[in-house]
Amino acid sequence: MKHATQSLLIRGGRVIDPLARIDAVMDVLLRDGQVAEIAPPNKIRAGAEEKIDAQGLIVAPGFIDLHVHLREPGQGYKETIASGTAAAAVGGFTSVCCMPNTTPVLDSPEWVTWVRQPQRGAVVNVFPIAAATQASKGAVLTDFRALQRTGAVAVTDDGKPILSETTMRDALRASAEINFPVIQHAEDTRVTQNCSMNEGPTSFRLGLRGISVNSEATIVDRDVQLAQQFNGARLHIAHLSTAASLTAVRRGKKNRARVTCEVTPHHIALTDADVVDYDTNFKMNPPLRSAEDREALLAAISDGTVDAIATDHAPHAQHEKIIEFERAAFGITGLETALGLVISVLIAEHKVPLTRIVELFTSGPARVLDLRGRGTLLRGSHADVTIFDPKKRWTFDASKSRSKSHNTPFDGRQMIGKVVATIVGGKIVYRAA
Amino acid sequence: MSASRPQTEKKSAARGSLLGIEELPASEINRLLLLARKMNPAKTRPLLRGKRVLLLFYEASTRTRTSFEVAAQALGAETTLVISSGSSIEKGESLLDTAYTLRAVGADAIVVRHPNAGAPHLMASYLDIPVINAGDGMHEHPTQALLDAYTILKHKKKLTGLQVTIVGDIYHSRVARSAIHLLSKAGAKLTLCGPPELLPEMATTLVKGLRISRSCEEAVRGADVVMILRVQRERLAGLKVSLPDYVSRYQMTMARLRMAKPDALLMHPGPIIRGLELTWDVADCPQSVIVEEVHNGVPLRMAVLARAMGKAA
Prior knowledge:
The complex is a heterodimer.
Chain A: E1 7-17, E2 22-31, E3 34-39, E4 50-53, E5 58-61, E6 63-68, H1 81-90, E7 93-98, H2 109-116, E8 125-131, H3 144-150, E9 154-156, H4 165-178, E10 182-184, E11 197-198, H5 201-206, E12 210-211, H6 214-229, E13 234-237, H7 243-254, E14 258-263, H8 265-269, H9 291-303, E15 308-309, H10 318-321, H11 338-349, H12 354-361, H13 363-368, E16 385-395, E17 414-424, E18 427-431
Parallel strand pairs in A: 1-4, 1-5, 6-7, 7-8, 8-9, 9-10, 10-13, 11-12, 13-14, 14-15
Antiparallel strand pairs in A: 1-2, 2-3, 5-16, 16-17, 17-18
Helix pairs in contact in A: 2-3, 4-6, 6-7
Chain B: H1 26-37, E1 52-57, H2 63-74, E2 78-83, H3 95-104, E3 109-114, H4 119-124, E4 131-136, H5 142-155, E5 163-167, H6 174-185, E6 189-193, E7 211-213, H7 216-220, E8 225-228, H8 243-250, H9 254-257, E9 265-267, H10 280-283, H11 290-308
Parallel strand pairs in B: 1-2, 1-3, 3-4, 5-6, 5-8, 6-7, 8-9
């Protein structure tokens, strides 16, 4: 996909590019893998081999998902880089950052290179996030510099926290030295053993041990304080889910620490009260939280505290999900439902401006991980474009998902907002039927 | 019975299943309690002749297991016991595959005890035969709540308006959850008592009108029924509950029990640990119906099994 030599003209769409402060009907010309020109309608003189009529549609920079589990190497029965990126294309994502909790753990430059090889069959850009500690065991830091050089865009032990304060301090010190983000899965696993959903009235009623709000917030709070100690350290909080964690992030941002955070579509679409009948498609980590936490996330999306929407797409095979709730794997798929959910919830219910939504999918995540030339349609940027219809009503059918796994709570859910075309490096990789 | 292939689509539980008290309408509870009165364990009735009841136990049990066995046999059904050790469960067979296997060997109903909440619900949503919950994790133990209601009704005219106090480890207790649902539906006035670690404030959200007390004396005062729960010693490790402290504040002693009404019933689902949640003399006092509860488990479970097989008429 990096070798596109064709040209593509996207005509008559409403271009929303928050970074470039564009919100107007424009034509966009893509050529040789780059944005060649962006101009008012019918002003582009150069010809194009292919044209897309985008009238009535939104033309946005290609969406970026900071948090995706593509499961390779080693867990191809759940997902492959090929199948996961195909699902990403359907969801409008032109770039995905994949998590290192694979088999083996992605903790070496060799494996980072392996993930990026063309024979993996990726149809969108894949940016590997490497493990922060060897085998993600939390003890010995990986070689950040070597990983960065091979193309890793950040480090994390996602799936698990970097629990030790000493290790986290060392990681943030190294982060500051080479300007490399450390992503924290904030969970004090010492207090979440055998817990399978949010602690609250629903967990009490179902007889399930509860994951407290504090198990996340105490780690976020600690890490924000640590990040402030190292000038230039970059801390990103993955799948932030509680009001208390937002308080810590706000304080860090106010103190000019380089702290960012992401929120998932499911945490703003559902609450723990939606966990019914021990349906393991509602089991993920962090868990669905209370209505109050959900409201706090929505407020933080509106006021700018949240930097990005990220799916935490976590495919699992049936044998890992159609079992006892407490034994089932944490995680749900999310790539194909992200835009529909976010528009349904944020616009239909909360009147968040469309430009803010586009920002959360584009320039926001690009800034978090410093993905240069992405998340914008400024001339010379990568020719990654997402075209969508923000008013289209549709129903998600999990059986038609491109992902290898179908563990989603949103099967049959009505949504507003659908991707029409996904363009990566100037090439159309998905077009709605 | 047909040797049909396992169904792979989720569906609602088969008629006659008993998964929990929460979703059981009050009318059904009454029907079961009335039916249990008609059951006589001493006199075998061939109501379920030719039926096969599979008892699938993933957890230790004395009372529940034997009383289901006796109940099924008193109705003329055959029983087969499958326990996790010594079966394919040890080899890693999944719950659903075990369920399909038991269905295939001719089970007409499955009684299941499992350490995980919701395990019977999972089985019920993939099986076409009734599933009876004999205790799932910390969630529910519906037949225990029913037999307790049955026991209370042997001594009290009705459940409505009764003052019932439950003392002990509510948080870890499936007995407590089922009892609270049942007694609340029946209109009893419920007080829960225990330390915050074993009785979090959010317990009040379970049903309307629940009262929490941290003082055993206050909770017991004027009660018609005092139900004691076992302190699940094995689960206290991670919690900051000291046993001597628990004993001094919450152990049921004769002095405390005397604060209840003179004719108050003293109940305990068992197993009891004398000297911990109750003293030796409380366990054997005239008000104690602990042994009677076990006794009543048989007719009650006969009623549950008869209903499961559509023989509740």
